[in-house]
Amino acid sequence: LEHLRQSIADILSTPIGSRIMRRDYGSRLFKRIDAPMTGELMAEIYSDVVEALFSYEPRFEVTNVSVVSIENGHLILDLVGKYLVTGETVTINGIDIQ
């Protein structure tokens, strides 16, 4: 599970377009960090997380995204989902996007 956590953190903290040979790798979360907290922002964050992990982390299926903190260019997320290797539900806390 530690490798899964590391992979998820890497995917979500990599801005799309920043990897030379993999321009589509990463997430759109950097666009959301300085936005005002609204219901629309929460929906966009959820969508961005699900889209990125669906594309790049086939071992994990997201069921819940919680924004723990979003301030000063810093976003912290907690995720719940199904670890498809074993079928168990896992919680991944403290995914840090800056």
Description:
The chain is of the alpha+beta class. It has 2 helices and 3 strands. The chain has a 3-stranded antiparallel β-sheet, covered by helices on one side. The longest helix is centred in the middle third of the chain and has 18 residues, at about 40-55. The relative contact order is 0.21.
Give the topology:
Layout lengths: L1 H12 L25 H18 L3 E12 L2 E10 L4 E10 L1
Antiparallel strand pairs: 1-2, 2-3
What distinguishing features does this structure have?
single chain; 31% helix; 33% strand; 98 residues; alpha+beta; 2 helices; three-stranded antiparallel β-sheet
Summarize this, please?
This protein has 98 residues and is α+β, with helices and mostly antiparallel strands. It is 31% helix and 33% strand. The mean pLDDT is 94.
- The total count of strands amounts to 3
Give the overall shape, derived from the CA principal axes.
globular
What fraction of residues sit in β-strands?
25-35%
Distance between the termini: 23 Å
Uncertain segments of ≥5 residues (pLDDT<50)?
none
Supply Rg: 13 Å
Helix content range of the residues, please?
25-40%
What is the typical, i.e. mean, pLDDT? 94
Q: Number of helical runs?
A: 2
Strand count, sense and barrel status of the largest sheet are: 3 strands, antiparallel
Name the strands of the widest sheet in spatial order: 1-2-3
Instruction: Give the topology string: H per helix, E per strand.
Output: HHEEE
User: Structural class, please?
Assistant: alpha+beta
